[in-house]
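#struct-help
A.M.: can someone run this one for me? Single chain, 486 residues.
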Amino acid sequence: MKTDKILFLCQDLTIVNRKSCLKIPNFLLKRGETWVILGQNGAGKSQFAQILGGKKIDFCGKVKSFGRSVLVSFEKINETIENDRQDDAYISESNFLSPGQKVCDFFKISNLRILDEFMQKFNIFHTRNTSIRHLSTGELAKILIIAALCENPDILVLDEPFDGLDTKSCGELLQIIENFIDKKVAVIMFLNRIQEIPACASHLAFIEKERSFLVAGKREIVEKSKKFQRLLHFQNEKIQEIPQKITQDSPILYENYAVLKNVCIKYGEKIVLDNLNWTLKRGEHWYIFGPNGCGKSTLLSIISGDNPQSFANDIELFGKKRGQGETIWEIKKNVGIVSTLFHRDYRVSISALNVIISGFHDTIGIYKKPSLSEIHAANRWLELAAMKNAAKESFANLSYGEQRLLLILRAMVKHPPILILDEPCFGLDPFNRELVLNLVEILASSNTTSVLFVSHHEEDVIKNIKNRLEFVQSKNGYDIIEKRIN
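D.P.: on it. Structure tokens below:
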């Protein structure tokens, strides 16, 4: 089998998107190559990934594919969850989501030995009988990557494959990719973090905001270019202040924002949290670390008031025990949240400006006329994030990274007592990631907001967050190690 066989080519490719377009004069992909394509949010990376993955979207130019391609992306993850909801979208009398499709029924493959081998390599064999809807984002990403590999494609397209994966899983994925390269396929990874470029990458490219290839070619040549070196040493100008809070709510007088005693959360036979004891005190900030599927997002769903099993546990939020007459809105008015699940559920077609305004009302969408002060504050947040020109754009038409940034601003806009950031940097380019970390740092220094920050990336450092809650695998599941800095 020749390693230089052309698998994909495009010439004078133009993809119109919103008010601008992505232009790629020439791109050639050969068997055995591994490309990494970087780029800014909104630059058109995902549209190019869709074309490489064989998806039908509008474009002009010459495009030819000479092999079978498979795409794995955030959009594919969302599509999988949505299909599962449509197939079985009712809630049972026990207040648990109905079972939905099991992992073992998701794969359309006759060779179960290969499937089991991939699942063992990715350390998710234990999820075979778990419902798709009960998987963590990282676990679901692994499932889709395995499904793609089982199709034995000529071209494997991975849009942000490492986002949502813990460190161990990233290493496992890289090992699998390297094995695939030995089979002479072509692999294309679209990444936001330069430090995630794997050693096996043979070619690099960067798409700039003005929507064209800034630099592209063999890795050893691109890495020596001045344009690429500027990317490596990029730094934002630090923001010194953020828009002030526009409402004067009654202060929370309780010392403890959340108290969890012997909490147990399980789905069917799977125990997610077992005998958890933890207290979040006013003004504290916490990093929360742990492997995929360990229960980090479940813990945060308890704090945000979204987990129905909270009523069966000894949980106190803002001085009130769950199940003693408090409404979900009384909890949500004190919480700002960003998570992949929330991002997935934010499916209304409203403007970018109104997305931020919805944060004042804790709603998905706008259901009453906003005040002038809310409009003014939302515009200031957009300006801070260099998104003022997107104020009237539909949320649905923005890139995943731009959507993520808007939802982060939405969570911050009311300066909530608790700010929950569950992998907030998903899909963000270096510029926006640095911006978000800067904003979180300012909020954390205000002494009015407690930040809970989940991340798989140790480099996402915020100096004001000192406490750590770490999920560590043990024989019976996960032990939780608390490191509180007084």
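A.M.: thanks! The longest strand covers residues 6-17.
D.P.: also worth noting: DSSP finds 15 helices and 19 strands in the chain.
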